[in-house]
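DM from R.C. (forwarded with permission)

"hey, sorry to bug you on a friday — could you get me a structure for this? deadline for the figure draft is monday and I only need the backbone to look sensible"
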Amino acid sequence: MTRTSTRDARSAVRVPVRRRPRRTGHLVVYLVLIALALAYVYPFIVQVATSFKTDADAAADPLSLLPNPFSTAAYSRLFLNSEYPLWFRNSVVVTLLVTVGRVFVNSLAGYALARVQFRGRSLVYAGVVAVMAVPGVVLLIPKFLVLKELGIYNTYGALVLPLVADAAGVFIMKNYFESIPVSVEEAARIDGAGTFRLWWSIVLPMAVPALVTITILAFQGSWNELSHFIVASQDPSLVTLTKGVAQLTAGQLGSGTQYPLKLGAAAIMTIPVAVLFFVFQRRIMDASSGAVKG
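My reply, with the result:
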């Protein structure tokens, strides 16, 4: 009994000594993470708060989080006395078309590279990987020339078609399809199913994690796209949100700083992507891990 009591006493004394450094280290890590999170979120909070200020208040105290006085004049001007609703509609149309088209084309191309045997397949795949390493700005002038030659410059086609396929999406889908055993397609192939039927009915339903990843990336990428829209159209009726907000910073709607107007326009533009992230946050994590695993 005495030895047992002595051991218990020693263990009771040792446990706090071992855990204190760990708790202190965890506390320091948490404090650092909280500070970094606040530093990252603070500019967005300032943006939202400034959008509800008057021009004078925003210019006098731009970093204040309390509008004095509280005003919705910036939003009224955006929706009632500007082309902002048109920009928003164009962005919605282009984003939806690009997202649907990109999911279809990327998955189809990825399946072709993963399953279909054709001459030059390795060369095509090498080209896809090489395109991923090319900065997008390098392709702006070639895009402009191609759109002019095709006769679709200043049309919705010019805004949508060049964004329908992307190398990263093809890369993700190819790798995921290769992780699916070929044996799942053998029974359907024996029954006479063609390549398209195998892709649509057998393999595609098994690639939901990769499809979710492509959908999210396509929506976010096309909604935030700017450089392509600059070279694809000069028609005022085809201006998207990113291009329109960029024009606001140049003083399109008048002179002066106009901080509430500009930051209000930018705040509204972030809502769809923010909603997408918060609603599908858990699915984004699962989809990303599934695509990487594939």
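R.C.: lifesaver. The CA atoms of residues 212 and 287 lie 6 Å apart.
me: no worries. The first helix runs from residue 2 to 51.
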